[in-house]
Write a structure and sequence with these properties.
β22 and β23 form a beta hairpin. With about 475 residues, this protein is α/β, with parallel strands linked by helices. α1 packs across α7. The C terminus is likely disordered. The radius of gyration is 23 Å and the shape is globular. It has a nine-stranded mixed sheet. The chain has two domains: about 220 residues, Rossmann fold (3-Layer(aba) Sandwich), CATH 3.40.50; about 220 residues, Class I glutamine amidotransferase (GATase) domain (Rossmann fold, 3-Layer(aba) Sandwich), CATH 3.40.50.
């Protein structure tokens, strides 16, 4: 199968890839096409915009955390349901892990055999733009570079000059531009862009952006390039179609403005392995969903909603009671913060949280951790056995400030041979850490979590089983 597809890759970070990707998706959607968005790497926020615009969950394709066959399977599973796949790159086209290709947009593009359109900020360039694009073209001839889109253009004359020099010196077509316009700049906060769900004016922003792109970018040429992609590579399917058991479990998923950092494929793998997922809102709901066998709390911005989370005492008490009773609870990053004794915000104000762990989480004035890591389990836990290595990603401004000394670390974190730290906490049947995991790296991580949920259900004779047959939540027409 061909699976029309194209990677929008930048010369560097901050050139407007996310804005362009959003606008292009919206413009293609106006033409009646079904668009499947993807994001290269471990980002959560950019995908929230693409999900909002396309009406389909944006999927992460991470060539470091995932094996090649896993990347291809996750891509094909969604691409076959769409007319065209738009893949936003990460950082600059050739920027990978430790100055290597691994994990870069170029790595992913070659893995998918996808054509690439280069996005560059030409706001302070004219003839030099040709030299920049020529360098990207010649740096790796294995990358199928098909065209260029330029951003931050001051005038039509500026664009014509840029277009002429790029096409003359590189032979690559310039497919269009975005003009200088402060309205087209997406707002940011300490973890990056503000998530799409918090932007009340996003619809009008998208409408203006898509209308502009229809006038300034050759959309027909972009579609044509996507349809010229090579035949999709062969691969072995391993992630989906796993063991199906008659007895399913119900896992509650924390989902609101405070907690929304999830890889959608993680949730799909849980469903495939035997879970029914029920969403709840930590900011408003007073109890966990009835019949829940387990709990999954993803990342997000609990520090920005600490006051409201703290005041929801009923839910905090319910979670603590369930944790003491042995309910399997898995939490990542923001979830770890919520399960601690308290969050101390940027202004040094403390807000009581769930209190499973006798530890304080404090917001720092700088980034505390960012990048890929390998975590080694220091003891058996919900996801794996002691000694198991798992690829992960970390990105957080907070840190474990105080602990009662009774808590057990979950992982030994290895970024390189000279940078080994500890992360995460384990207590009762709860595992929480700063590490973000992708179950596509090994679906048995999800399988083991589900087995713990099933075992916990049978150990609790008072447990309600009314939730065991709940339907899986599906939103926005996604399949």
């Amino acid at each position: 199968m061909g699976y029309p597809r194209v990677v929008l890759a930048g010369t560097n970070s901050g050139v407007g890839k996310t804005t362009l990707t959003m606008g292009l998706i919206a413009a293609l959607k106006k033409r009646g096409l079904t668009i499947q968005p993807f994001k290269v790497g471990p980002d959560y926020i950019d995908p929230s915009y693409h999900t909002r615009v396309s009406g389909r969950y944006c999927r992460n394709l991470d060539a470091w955390m995932l094996a090649k066959d896993a990347v291809l399977e996750l891509f094909e599973r969604q691409a076959k349901l769409s007319d065209i796949s738009i893949i936003e790159g990460v950082m600059g086209l050739y920027d990978g892990l430790k100055n290597k290709e691994t994990g870069s947009s170029a790595h992913l593009a070659k893995m998918l055999k996808s054509p690439v359109i280069l996005v560059m900020d030409a706001g302070s360039m004219s003839r030099s733009a040709g030299a920049v694009v020529l360098g990207y073209k010649e740096f790796d001839r294995g990358v199928d570079l098909r065209g260029v889109i330029v951003n931050n253009i001051g005038s039509r004359a500026h664009y014509d000059s840029i277009k002429t020099t790029i096409e003359k010196r590189t032979g690559l077509p310039v497919l269009g531009f975005l003009p200088k316009d402060k309205v087209l700049v997406l707002p940011e906060r300490h973890l990056g862009l503000i998530p799409a769900g918090e932007r009340g004016v996003l619809d009008s922003f998208i409408e203006k952006l898509s209308g502009l792109i229809e006038k300034t970018i050759d959309i027909d040429r972009v579609i044509k390039i996507s349809r010229q992609a090579e035949a999709f590579p062969r691969f072995t399917k391993k992630l989906f179609g796993g063991s199906q058991r008659a007895e399913r479990v119900t896992i509650a998923i924390a989902k609101d403005e405070a907690f929304n950092f999830y890889y959608q494929d993680n949730l799909d793998i849980l469903v495939d392995r035997g879970a029914n997922l029920v969403e709840f809102k930590p900011l408003g709901d007073k109890r966990l969903p009835e019949g829940a066998d387990g709990l999954y709390i993803g990342g997000g911005f609990p520090e920005l909603f600490a006051g409201k989370l703290s005041r929801n005492i009923s839910l905090k008490n319910d979670i603590l009671k369930k944790a003491k009773g042995g309910m399997p609870i898995y939490a990542e990053c923001g979830g770890l913060m919520y399960l601690a004794k308290e969050i101390i915000d940027f202004e040094n104000k403390a807000y009581p949280m769930v209190g499973i762990f006798d530890a304080s989480i404090k917001m720092a004035l700088r980034l505390r951790a960012l990048g890929y890591v390998t975590v080694e389990a220091l003891k058996d836990n919900l996801l794996c056995d002691k000694g198991r290595d798992i690829k992960a990603h970390v990105f957080h401004w907070s840190y474990l400030d105080k602990s009662g000394g009774k808590e057990k670390y979950a992982y030994r974190v290895k970024k390189d041979k000279d940078n080994i730290t500890s992360d995460g906490l384990v207590k009762w049947n709860t595992l929480a850490s700063y590490a973000h995991l992708h179950f596509g790296s090994d679906p048995e991580l999800a399988g083991k979590f589900i087995e713990h949920c099933r075992a916990s259900r049978h150990c609790d004779p008072a447990h309600s089983r009314t939730g065991g047959g709940r339907s899986n939540l599906r939103k926005r027409g996604d399949r």
